[in-house]
Amino acid sequence: MELTPQRPNIQDVHAFIRAVASTLEQMHARQEPHGSVLSMRIVEWLDETGQFHAGKFHAARALVKNLPNNYDSLQFDVWCCADISIERIAGPAASSDQPFQAHLYLGKAWPEVFLRLLEDIAKNKQQSCVTMEALSSALQRPVTAAESAGNSVQPADDSQVVSTETAIPHASEPPSPLVKVSVPSPKTPLAPVISFALPNATVGKPYCLEAGRIARAIAGKRGDNPETAQVVHLQLPEDHGLSFDKLTGAVSGTPTQAFEGPLSLGYVVSSSSGILPLQISLLINPNPASLWKELDPPADAPYQKELLDHSEALHGPFRIVAASRRGRSHANKGEFRDDDYAIGYAADTGWLVIVVADGAGSATYSRRGSQIACAVAKDRLVGVLDSAQHNQAEALYTQHRDWQHPEVKKALRQSLYEAALLAHHKLRAEVAKPAEPLPAPPTLRNYDTTLILLVMKKTGEGCVVATFAIGDGGAGILPHPGEGIPLTHADSGEHAGQTIFLTFDSTIANDEANLEKRFHLVQTAEFTGALAMTDGITDPKFPSDAAFADPAQWASLWAELQPVLTSSPALLEWMNFFSPGNHDDRTLVAVLPAQTAAPATS
Fold first, then answer.
1. Is-above-0.70 flag for pTM?
2. Closest among 30, 71, 584, 547 to 337, alpha carbons compared
3. Quick one: 582 exposed, middle or buried, by C-beta within 10 A (0-12, 13-18, 19+)?
4. How do beta strands 451-459 and 462-470 pair?
5. How much is the CA Rg of the chain, to the nearest whole Å?
6. Are 463 and 457 in contact (CB under 8 A)?
7. Domains of the chain
8. Confidence tier at 468 by pLDDT (50, 70, 90)
9. Alpha-carbon gap, residue 231 to 252, rounded angstroms
10. In the chain, what is the greatest distance between 2 CA atoms, to the nearest angstrom?
């Protein structure tokens, strides 16, 4: 095959397609279509070694334009991804005039369910509603021994079977009009068993096939009267959480364990006809959360750190509930928690100090970087804000009686900036003289971490809060339960999705443009709560910049949080929620009025 920029030599086709599908699945979970998933763009997605590069894939993203009215932008990505997969699997010799036939490629290390989905998409592109999650999930399934040997059962004669379509996974999606079925052609002399597959289910997710849906699907394929057709028997797996209603033919329940295999079903054309046996298959996928491992980090690694942390405190007019937990991605690899937080209080002046940091997963000692940054910045701010000599913002407020006065804002901004600057220099000091023996001399980038500083004070006019942020994550204040005001903004590098860190000289540059974009100050007459979070919380709860700026999204998060802010263990447990594609460490510090303290238990 001649190699061109449009047809690069990809050595591991399976790894390439899997990486593309997985990345698209994560984007679609955030409702972000890629748009430029076309063969001619493949060369833009690869690194210098020809391997798939997620960052370049994101950077090559283009808006989907001029699609026909009946096309969905996310579905368009699925179709394009399927086309690329078919091209790579079938090779250049495959005729474009012949539809993709899954059975031709069994025994070549591809999961059969993935090949069947490609076949379904190729045949029914206009009507197919396969999701990227379904396509990616099918691709991730291990290849069975039968598939590996190419022994999957195929029809002996195309005339024997009208359709061999595969059920579209994920019952949480709107149901497709029909259950996918396979029936004998009219010229079959004896009525064999009719086989078909129910839509896939997932452990822990409600599953429902509405009354009569199965019977109508079969009747439609056979040409029977759907008004009189019935399913009178369905043998569902025992103790799996699903039930069959004999009166209506509905299937419902929440699966409790995984299953894959054949079941028996009895169908009648009318109340006076005999029972026709059917062969039915059902796949219940395991709950994705159950597939993650929980491994301990090496006991001899430097900078040991607790995998979970949580605390509660009362400081003046404020009640604080905080928690931080290791993400699934780190637990699955036996790595440390890289997030950290710190809380302080300047008792003489009434300033509360909150610091949250997210160590970069790619940085060897970022767990220590976030720890240093939080501790140093918190101590610095408490010391400055509690000092009559050094708290210039307090002195200038006494003079101007206005927290929004330019001189007051600038003085408060300077205090926050200097705390971040000191944390930066402490990281440099750690590089020069590590606190623990390390296997090799470290670099500053080994300690990459983001940093969010939040200070707030109860005043006669309500509440004043200020932030200084470097990197992702976010903070906000809620004057009312139904209204949230963001206190930070998206802070990224030159390329989309690129995070910046406290270790970068540019982030602590002492120039007006840099300082102003990192500083926010808000004064509110009322105060319900304030939140400071790492991106393990903001990414799943605010999937876009627009969502982060939407007061309704903040209100939704607050409504979700309120029941668990009774205690820090409850908050820690809430943080274990499952969100596809979002498996990072999670840290959240919530500030509430002191009178909302958790109720006493009897």
1. no
2. 584
3. buried
4. antiparallel
5. 29
6. yes
7. 1-154 (1.10.510), 156-291 (2.60.40.10), 308-535+563-596 (3.60.40.10)
8. very high
9. 15
10. 99
